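re: ur msg from earlier - yeah i can do the copper (II) ion complex, just paste it... oh wait u already did. ok heres what im feeding in:
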Amino acid sequence: MNTNQMTIPAISCGHCKLTVEREVSELAGISKATVDVDLKQLTVEFETPATLLKIHGLLQEIGYPVAV
Ligand SMILES: [Cu+2]
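and the outut:
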């Protein structure tokens, strides 16, 4: 199991939180996705077939790209 934290500047409210948590949770291999709105941060626990690349790609697709 991998745990990763990423900053997503586009997260600004509870609606963003729900959207990001729901969409990321739907990826196969994700066991937990939690957004902290104040920190604009997503914490995700995952294992194969999920990868960091897939998670970043999904976030990009739904309009919440990860800050580099
Ligand atoms: Cu929002």
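cool cool. Strands lie at 2-7, 30-36, 41-46. ping me if u need the other ligands too
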